[in-house]
Structures are given as structure tokens and as C-alpha cells.
Amino acid sequence: EYYCESVSVNEFIQNDESNIFPNPFTTSTTIEYELSKPSHVQLTIYNAIGEVVYTTLDRMMPQGKHSFKWTADRLPEGMYYGVLRSEEGVSVVKMVKQ
């Protein structure tokens, strides 16, 4: 389990809306990220009150650009936060389901 007291946004994702498309979304959205070196990566998605609604296994990913498609068709509308953890740091992206 990961516990994080503070979250810093770095060049890993930069909280740039263009790295999530579509956003807002209705059923699914794609999150893109880039690694400058091979790294263990885990994506956790939280709802607006901080409950974990989705998590991936921690896995080794090669250097380069990657994308992850998240399908949230069974979840209610609202704000979600994607927290991407890697050896390069922690990045947070905001996603809106309509």
C-alpha cells in the first residue's frame, strides 16, 4: 500500500489536460504519460471523497510514452483524481465524468 502525505506535480505528467482525452468523458478516458527511464509504475484513481475506485498493479514499464485507457461506465458522474506513481515521482491528474 502506498500512503502519500504530499503530492508534487513534476514534468512526468505536468497535470496537463492534453494528456487525458477526452476530459470531461462519459464512459472512458485515456491517460498518457512518458518515462525518461524504465520505472515501476502504478496508477490509482480516487473519487472526490478520496475512495480508491481503481488501481493497477505496480509494474515495470520501459522508457518512453505510454497510454492507459480507463473505463468508468459503472461509476457516477463527478470529479476523479488519477495518481500516477513512479520512481520519477508522483503526478496527479483531474478527470471529470459527465
Query: What is the N-to-C order of secondary-structure elements (H for helix, E for strand)?
Result: EEEEEEEE
Distance separating the two termini? 30 Å
Gyration radius from CA atoms, angstroms: 13 Å
Q: Tally of extended strands?
A: 8
Q: Largest sheet at a glance?
A: 5 strands, antiparallel
| Helicity level | under 10%
Structural class: mainly beta
Q: Which outline best applies? A: globular
| Unreliable sequence segments | 1-17
Counting H and I runs of at least 4 residues, what is the number of helices? 0
Query: Which whole number gives the mean pLDDT?
Result: 84
How much strand? over 45%
Q: Can you walk through the features of this model?
A:
With 98 residues, the protein is mostly beta strands. 0% of the residues lie in helices and 53% in strands. It has no helices and eight strands. It has strands at residues 20-21, 28-35, 39-47, 52-55, 59-61, 64-71, 78-86, 89-97. The strands form two sheets. Strands 3, 4, 5, 7 and 8 form a five-stranded antiparallel β-sheet that branches. The protein has a three-stranded antiparallel β-sheet with strand order 1-2-6, with no helix packed on it. The radius of gyration is 13 Å and the shape is globular. 19% of the residues are buried.
Concise summary:
The protein has strands at residues 20-21, 28-35, 39-47, 52-55, 59-61, 64-71, 78-86, 89-97.
Set out the fold topology.
Blueprint: E1 20-21, E2 28-35, E3 39-47, E4 52-55, E5 59-61, E6 64-71, E7 78-86, E8 89-97
Antiparallel strand pairs: 1-2, 2-6, 3-4, 3-5, 3-7, 7-8
Which features characterize this protein?
single chain, 98 residues, mainly beta, five-stranded antiparallel beta sheet, three-stranded antiparallel beta sheet, 8 strands, globular, disordered N terminus
